[in-house]
């Protein structure tokens, strides 16, 4: 099974072209490929291109636990760079369909930077989803591990919970993230962003990603957090989002449509040996 590996601000993905996948990409195989010690190691798998109605290219996105993600900003930028490297796109905009909707992407700077129009962010509880009465989920209270947090929820095709704190840290994200991800009010689980407002044009994030865990960067998380910051009146439309892996530039339109721009780096390509799939993991969540 041939693979191509890229990272976007330290958030790394493996691209597997269905045309070159000689074996079925099952949940156990996804876990093994993504495992940092027993496989190639990645934050997920991008399975494409494939044909999907209403778009130039189709893409499926898998988390390292084998679950399927609806959308990924970094994953979409990486997949766009892969299409560029394969000579399938040039500098003109093209569309990609995911389970979380269609986006428009443009590759520039010789492939090293990609802009994605991610779609509109919604705060509607019925769309995210969040249990309870139909409402915009803004500045609500959540008690986790003996700590009362203020949060807002959003979707840009996948669910997000944005927690605003005066100070953020990797330690706190790792401690609270898994409990918020699986909190019963989020029936589909949720991605979690711990956000610090620096000023009206800058925010900082620590991220716990659904199905992946602590993550150095996330495009959809950055999009959701920037939208929440603007919706609450804390930031202006143009926002630099700083994450441990680096920065994304985000524009939040008046209708909460999101445009993200950031770098992509090609890492490696190779072939996954069939021998990898003969292994049995004692703890598949130990990445």
Describe this structure in words.
The structure is a single chain. The protein is of the alpha+beta class and 287 residues long. The chain folds into 2 domains: 2-112 and 265-278, Diaminopimelate Epimerase, Chain A, domain 1 (Roll), CATH 3.10.310; 120-261, Diaminopimelate Epimerase, Chain A, domain 1. The protein contains 4 helices and 18 strands. It has helices at residues 27-34, 73-85, 170-181, 219-231; strands at residues 2-8, 11-16, 45-50, 57-62, 68-69, 94-98, 101-108, 113-120, 140-144, 147-155, 159-164, 191-199, 202-209, 213-215, 238-243, 246-252, 257-263, 265-271. It has an 18-stranded mixed β-sheet that branches. The longest helix is centred in the first third of the chain and has 13 residues, at 73-85. The protein is globular, with a radius of gyration of 18 Å. The mean pLDDT is 95.
């Amino acid at each position: 099974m041939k693979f191509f590996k890229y990272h976007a601000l330290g958030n790394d993905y493996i691209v597997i072209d269905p045309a070159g996948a000689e074996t079925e990409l099952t949940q156990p195989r996804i876990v093994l490929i993504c495992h940092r010690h027993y496989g190639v190691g990645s934050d997920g798998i991008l399975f494409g291109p494939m044909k999907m109605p209403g778009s130039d290219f189709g893409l499926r996105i898998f988390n390292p636990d084998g679950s399927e993600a609806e959308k990924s900003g970094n994953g979409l930028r990486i997949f766009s760079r892969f299409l560029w490297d394969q000579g399938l796109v040039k500098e003109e905009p093209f569309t990609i369909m995911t389970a979380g909707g269609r986006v428009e992407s443009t590759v520039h700077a010789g492939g090293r930077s990609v802009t994605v129009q991610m779609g509109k962010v919604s705060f509607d509880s019925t769309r995210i989803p969040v249990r309870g009465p139909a409402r915009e989920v803004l500045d609500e209270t959540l008690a986790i591990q003996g700590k009362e947090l203020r949060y807002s929820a959003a979707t840009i095709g996948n669910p997000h919970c944005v927690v605003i704190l005066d100070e953020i840290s990797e330690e706190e994200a790792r401690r609270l993230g898994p409990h918020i991800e699986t909190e019963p009010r989020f029936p589909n689980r949720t991605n979690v962003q711990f956000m610090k407002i620096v000023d009206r044009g800058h925010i900082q994030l620590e991220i716990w990603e659904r199905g992946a865990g602590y993550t150095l960067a996330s495009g959809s998380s950055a999009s959701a957090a920037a939208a929440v910051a603007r919706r609450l009146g804390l930031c202006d439309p143009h926002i630099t989002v700083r994450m441990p892996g680096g920065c994304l530039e985000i524009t939040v339109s008046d209708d909460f449509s999101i445009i993200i721009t950031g770098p992509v780096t090609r890492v490696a390509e190779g072939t996954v040996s069939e021998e990898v799939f003969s292994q049995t993991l004692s703890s598949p969540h130990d990445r």
